[in-house]
Design goal:
mainly beta; Porin; 8-stranded antiparallel β-barrel; about 5% helix; flat
Length: about 350
Amino acid sequence: MRTLSTVLIALVIASSAAAQRRVRIGPTVSSISIQDGSGASQSFTGFGGSLAFLSGDDGEVGIGVSRFGDLSNNSCVRQMTFFGLESNYYPVGAKGVAPYASSSVGLARVTDQDAGLLGICTGAQASSQLGLGFGLGVRLNIGKQAAALVEGRFFQVPNSAIQALEGRANVSFAFGSPRKKTELLNGTMGPAIGVLARLSGPMEGRGPTVGVRFRRDTKKGSLGLQIDYAPLRVTTGCSSNCEPYAVLFAPTYEPSLYPAWGRIYAGVGFLLAGFPSLGADRGMAQGAHGGLGADIYSGPTLMVNVNTRVLWLQRQDPNNRNVFIVQAGVSLSPRLEHHAAIESR
């Protein structure tokens, strides 16, 4: 399933990779928070840079490099250099103050020593592994030639101690001419809240989900994306750290009907769930989601989204892998009408 996760994230990145025109390049500073064996978190600073190409008005694709010279919480050595193919998806365009959803997949070069008997560090072993990341950010355009980006994301290197939350900041110089032609139409976004109910499997919600919902129309249909913070509880087969939380990343393809009052749609997509805290689920779980929803116009400028969907994910624990949960939610965002209705005016 890790291979599946890699392919799916790569498809998300590739979908915004066409028509590269406008370029930005600049340094990046990162802070990553990693839990140790006792559950205490420690932050580490890293540095790097990014080179990205703006495709139309909807997104970027590029290459990012990050170097962490010290990720160790003891006297042993732990270092990482990450080379990633990165994508930023802008649901309301990349001008002005522009929120975005980010995804990244690449090569992590990790040097790691373990604390052996009597606390003596083993020999340093360097390995090349897959690295995955996803999250949310905001881009601030400074005139026409500079941009500042701030982002928070879940980041993982499987088979290592690096399953963590990361904050990143970048300042870039931009140059070149953007391509204006795009198949993307209008987009919108807004805050979302939901509740979780267990269908089957040893996991349930222990509080409301809080996140952000994106929607973007294209000439071939509608695309959605929701990123949530989800507090969970392991109900069976757990002796410690039984209340993890997850960061849910759920892109959706949404075939739709457009009555006069809004939109009705069915949605389906893959699901990634990042568990940064210590426990059996720590790391990234993968699965799928699907359900029904509606956008309801509320006055001339606002729109309410209501939706219900089934989430399926495979846990890290091999004895209780499949979890099915129902999520019902509501979101508020600026009103977005179907392009045919707008053109008929």
